[in-house]
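**Paired protein data**
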Amino acid sequence: MEKWGKIVEGERGKFVIDLRDPTQTRYEMVRELTLSSEPKENICRSYGYTRASGHLYQKAWQENKWKGLKDKARGPQRNYVRTEDVEQRVLSIRFKRPELDMYDLGDLLKKEGEVISARSVARILSKHGVTLKKTRKTASPN
């Protein structure tokens, strides 16, 4: 059998578990932990998990079924730099002084005590459709 599959044999026959799908792998591990008399540490190790992780997934299955076995979202849950207040401030400055570009707006906000990059200012402006249209400068006849 290849690395991606595990053969499980029972009274009614055998089937293959696709170990590339983490949710299915966790479900099969929890199912085997519940039904088997084999030591939990051996079962968890055969699926690539520790006994402690196996216990956590077993508890997650009991509480939330499939949702408990899925991967949890990682990373920040909200944007810490581009808060609603900062966005409103960027837009108000932009409408009062439309000649300022993203770098000037960023410098102005830094002077006010906000920690924000010019790129973040540009993202805010783009999100609200308030970007400057670049016009080509023509050479003046001398």
User: Anything to note?
Assistant: Residues 84-127 form one domain. The chain has two domains: 5-69, 84-127. Helices lie at 22-35, 40-46, 51-64, 66-69, 84-96, 102-111, 118-127. The first helix runs from residue 22 to 35.
